[in-house]
Specification:
Oligomer: single chain
Shape: rod-shaped
Largest sheet: none
Pfam family, one: MerR
Organism: Streptosporangium pseudovulgare
Number of helices: 13
Strand content: under 5%
Structural class: mainly alpha
InterPro entries: DNA-bd_dom_put_sf (IPR009061), MerR-type_HTH_dom (IPR000551), MerR_fam (IPR047057)
Protein name: HTH merR-type domain-containing protein
Keywords: DNA-binding
Length: about 260
């Protein structure tokens, strides 16, 4: 009658009977022999081992590593715990990063864009661009940052400077209006000419177009960014194509689909 049943042992240790049996299956705690009545009795040695296993598991030690830890000598045990602590520290840092990301998500744009880009989106709103137009810019910038990360900071710098130019802002607003035009509207060609002429006359603004060119798969990445949200054959897509044609004719390198 020495010892307690599995139910009482589990209660004493603070785990479930199912957990105790799982520890047995993993070999973490040796299963006691049955007594004359057919019950397994857990003595102080088994209870101590259960407490040790439960404590290590609660600390985040993988179950597969608990057995060797419990069987190790003091020096090896201390070294192994040091490794576990480093792993836990890494996991904690990862969780903190995830938590911070969730907090940024609550702030909308800041989860996907740097503070500079968020500030620029605010400037667009202040300049009179509609919520839909600002949202389109946001999506395009998120895509640009992902596809051409090495050029994104410089791109933001070029946009910051360009937004100080009222002529450039007026052209961009006109381009946003053109999205509602028919693809064959003659005003599209006029607007494309005005935009291309402005870019050629202002090399700093031209870098907004030429700056986002990746070192690999440049044409594919450029096209994904330049035509994001625009249907093929739409007025906006035709306008972009006309501007690109005029810039290429002036000797400006603009990636073409199907080239690298």
């Amino acid at each position: 009658m020495n010892g307690v049943t599995i139910g009482r042992a589990a209660a004493f240790v603070g785990v479930t009977v199912k957990t105790v049996r799982h520890y047995h299956r993993l070999g973490l705690v040796k299963e006691p022999e049955r007594d004359g009545s057919g019950y397994r009795r857990y003595g102080s040695a088994e209870l101590l081992r259960l407490v040790q296993a439960r404590t290590l598991a609660a600390a985040g030690v993988p179950l597969a590593e608990i057995g060797p830890l419990l069987d190790a000598g003091p020096a090896l045990f201390a070294a192994a715990l040091g490794d576990v602590e480093r792993q836990l520290t890494g996991r904690i840092e990862e969780l903190i990063t995830r938590r911070d990301t969730l907090r940024r998500l609550a702030d909308g744009d800041r989860a996907l864009l740097p503070d500079r880009a968020v500030a620029l989106l605010g400037r667009l709103s202040g300049l009179g661009f509609s919520a839909d137009e600002v949202a389109a810019a946001r999506e395009g910038w998120v895509l640009a940052r992902a596809l051409v990360p090495e050029g994104f900071d410089d791109y933001l710098t070029h946009v910051e400077h360009a937004l100080d130019d009222t002529r450039f802002v007026a052209l961009i607003k006109r381009g946003a209006e053109a999205a509602a035009w028919e693809p064959d509207d003659p005003r599209i060609a006029e607007l494309a000419t005005a935009m291309a002429d402005h870019l050629l006359a202002n090399p700093a603004h031209l870098k907004i177009v030429t700056g986002l060119q990746a070192s690999t798969e440049a044409a594919t990445r450029y096209e994904l960014i330049a035509l994001h949200g625009e249907e093929r054959g739409s007025a906006a897509a035709r306008g972009v194509a006309l501007v690109e044609t005029k810039l290429r004719a002036a000797g400006i390198r603009i990636p073409r689909a199907g080239t690298h």
